[in-house]
Write a structure and sequence with these properties.
binds cytidine-5'-monophosphate, TIM Barrel
């Protein structure tokens, strides 16, 4: 069991590439995120292998369907032995409560978090789908709804993490992508934050992909970020 705050995004189409990267890492220093691309290509087998290798897995499939279907999908995820699973808060209170109940009664109890508003949506997109308010207002409202529905936390961008932490308290789990260590390029991320700043602003876990997966020496890149994280946590004490 690791206490690492770093979740590496395994954004690969090819499971061989994903497993190759992971063979050079250690569960002592990171957790792993399996998303829709890798899961749709490689299925539960790859999750099984990663869990078997000792890693905590965040299964990032963002379930969004009728309550019963999402509840059953959450049980299936729990049965895979994953550490964390997520749903869309826009599925509503009944859907999130059903997911909570299903996880609580499953054989294994992964953390259950919600996606609030996809960061790819801007104000114009929100109006087009009929959601009043700004993306920021919707994120804050949906984070509150996720908490009221019994969820353990939400995914949020570095821009929102401080306000969500303030509104939802210390126990609510905040998972933040868009993280770039000092000196790393932004890739296609528009609003980025360093690991230390994200932690200072209230993030519990940092989702980091390309700065590690595309590094010449991924383990070294991970250990450097881990050192930055450790220093930030020590300074916060
Ligand atoms: O390579 P990079 O560090 O940008 O990867 C970040 C990961 O976090 C990717 O898997 C991406 O899909 C995910 N993510 C994100 N921004 C969000 C939500 C998820 O970058 N708002």
């Amino acid at each position: 069991m690791t206490d690492s705050r770093i979740i590496i995004a395994l954004d690969y189409a090819d499971p061989v590439q994903a497993l190759d990267l992971v063979s050079g890492l250690s569960p002592q220093y990171c957790r792993l995120k399996v998303g829709k691309e890798l899961f749709t290509r490689a299925g539960p087998v790859v999750v099984d292998k990663l869990v078997g290798a000792g890693f905590d897995i965040f299964l990032d499939l963002k379930f969004h369907d009728i309550a019963h279907t999402v509840a059953q999908a959450c049980v299936a995820a729990a049965d895979l032995g994953v550490w964390m699973v997520n749903v869309h808060a826009l599925g509503g209170r009944k859907m999130m409560e059903a997911a909570r109940e299903a996880i609580d009664s499953a054989s294994h109890h992964p953390r259950l978090i919600a996606v609030t508003v996809l960061t790819s949506l801007d104000g114009q997109d929100m109006r087009e789908i009929g959601l009043p308010g700004t993306p920021y207002e919707n994120v804050l409202r949906l984070a509150a709804l996720a908490k009221q529905s019994g969820l353990d936390g939400v995914v949020c961008s570095p821009q929102e993490v401080e306000d969500v932490r303030h509104a939802q308290g210390a126990e609510f789990c905040l998972v933040t992508p868009g993280i770039r260590p000092h000196g790393a390029g932004p890739n296609d991320q528009r609003r980025i934050m360093t690991p230390a700043d994200a932690l200072r602003n209230g993030a519990d876990y940092l989702v980091i992909g390309r700065p590690i997966t595309e590094a010449e020496d991924p383990l070294r890149a991970l250990l450097e970020i881990q050192a930055e994280v450790a220093a930030a946590l020590a300074a916060a004490k």
